[in-house]
Each structure stands twice: as structure tokens, then as C-alpha cells.
């Protein structure tokens, strides 16, 4: 089964709860996370099949503050469904690249971008090996939920900032959020799927690097 066939087989188009301007392929209601995960035959869950809290908040921030990406070259890392990348394209970014280590996510990003009538270049992207070359703004949502990934993501984002890129992140207060290294920009009360979170609404903060 190809990634595109797998993505389409377990999902259906749904409006994003906090970002109604965007529709995403979302895991079908009759198919829970574990069933879909089993179908992917990968070590990591199918993060591309849901609108996560951080992604919703960062997409909302970008659409409400389009000047942060308008006319700029944007890279969305650990993109998952492509929600944040799609928001950046809708907000007028000159170019949007959305990267994820999961090839199923890359397929989902491409499908979702086309469905929302925007241009996003989807590619496999490894935070440990790849760089934010020729990028003016780097976006990262929901990347601090696991210790190793959090450290890897922060190092990547600091390198990008050191090379001159603006950096925006969002997180609902996960355990490994490096808050001392970040600057708060905005907070939102974001409705989420209870299959993913421990509450129907999560407070999510959008950050820049300190």
C-alpha cells in the first residue's frame, strides 16, 4: 500500500476546530489511533492524521498575524498533517516547505495542501540531519513531547535562528518544553480531540526564541 493510499484509506476531510479556514484529512471516527497506527507499520504514531493542539494554535496565530510569514520563505518542521504550512501559504508566504520524517505524513501534507488550494512543497525531513537552508521563517508545533526530540528540535531551531531565520513555535505545556529558552507571544484555548488529549480544551502558547 502506498503512503497516499494508506492516508486516504483511514481518513476523511474535516474542518479544523480552531482553524475553520483549513480542512484536513482526519482519522475516521470509527478508526481509533491504535488501529490506524497498526496499519502504518511504523514505530511512531500517525501524527499526520489529527489536528494537534500546538498546530492549531500556531496556524491560528499565523492567519491572524500574516505579516510574520507574508512574502517570506518558510519551513515547517515536523509538519504532520501540514496544518501550519497550509496556514503559512494562506497567509501569503512566498514559498512554503513542509518537512516530516514520516513518508505517510509527507503524503498527507501533499493531499491536504491541494485540498486547501495552496502550494506547499512536502518532503522527508530529519531534524538531526537536515538544515534550514535558504529559509527566512522556521515553524515548529508540538515538538517538545519527548525528551530526545525536544533537545533535537531546540538545537535545530537555535541553528536556524543563528543563521538568520525567524523562529515560531507552539506547545500546550508538554513535559519537555524548554520554556526558559522561549519568549511568549500569544496564548489560546484550543478545542482538541479527546482521543489525543486529557481534556477537551488545552491552553496553547505560541513562542519565539528568547
For this entry, give a set of tags.
single chain, 210 residues, alpha/beta, two-stranded antiparallel sheet
Q: What is the count of helical runs?
A: 6
SSE arrangement, N to C: HEEHHEHEHEEHEEE
Sheet with the most strands, sense and barrel status? 7 strands, mixed
| Low-confidence regions | none
Secondary-structure blueprint of this entry?
Layout lengths: L2 H7 L1 E6 L2 E9 L5 H8 L12 H12 L8 E5 L5 H8 L4 E6 L2 H13 L5 E4 L12 E5 L5 H16 L3 E6 L10 E10 L9 E9 L1
Parallel strand pairs: 3-4, 3-6, 4-5, 6-7
Antiparallel strand pairs: 1-2, 7-9, 8-9
In short:
The protein is an alpha/beta fold.
Model description:
The protein is α/β, with parallel strands linked by helices. A seven-stranded mixed β-sheet has the order 5-4-3-6-7-9-8, with helices on both faces. Strand 6, helix 6 and strand 7 form a beta-alpha-beta unit. Helix 1 packs across helix 5 and helix 3 runs parallel beside helix 4. It is globular, with a radius of gyration of 16 Å. The mean pLDDT is 91.
Amino acid at each position: 500500500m502506498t503512503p497516499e493510499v494508506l492516508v486516504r484509506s483511514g481518513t476523511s476531510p474535516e474542518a479544523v476546530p480552531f482553524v475553520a479556514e483549513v480542512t484536513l484529512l482526519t482519522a475516521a471516527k470509527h478508526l481509533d489511533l491504535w488501529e490506524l497506527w497498526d496499519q502504518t507499520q511504523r514505530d511512531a504514531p500517525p501524527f499526520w492524521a489529527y489536528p494537534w493542539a500546538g498546530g492549531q494554535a500556531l496556524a491560528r496565530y499565523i492567519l491572524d498575524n500574516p505579516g510574520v510569514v507574508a512574502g517570506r520563505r518558510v519551513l515547517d518542521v515536523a509538519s504532520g498533517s501540514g496544518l501550519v504550512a497550509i496556514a503559512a501559504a494562506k497567509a501569503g508566504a512566498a514559498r512554503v516547505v513542509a518537512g516530516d520524517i514520516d513518508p505517510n505524513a509527507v503524503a498527507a501534507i501533499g493531499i491536504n495542501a491541494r485540498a486547501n488550494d495552496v502550494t506547499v512543497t512536502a518532503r522527508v525531513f530529519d531534524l538531526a540531519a537536515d538544515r534550514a537552508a535558504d529559509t527566512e521563517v522556521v515553524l515548529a508545533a508540538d515538538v517538545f513531547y519527548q525528551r530526545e526530540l525536544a533537545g533535537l528540535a531546540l538545537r535545530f531551531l537555535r541553528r536556524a535562528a543563528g543563521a538568520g531565520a525567524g523562529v515560531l513555535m507552539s506547545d500546550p505545556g508538554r513535559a519537555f518544553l524548554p520554556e526558559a529558552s522561549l519568549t511568549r507571544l500569544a496564548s489560546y484555548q484550543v478545542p482538541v480531540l479527546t482521543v489525543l488529549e486529557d481534556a477537551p480544551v488545552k491552553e496553547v502558547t505560541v513562542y519565539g526564541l528568547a
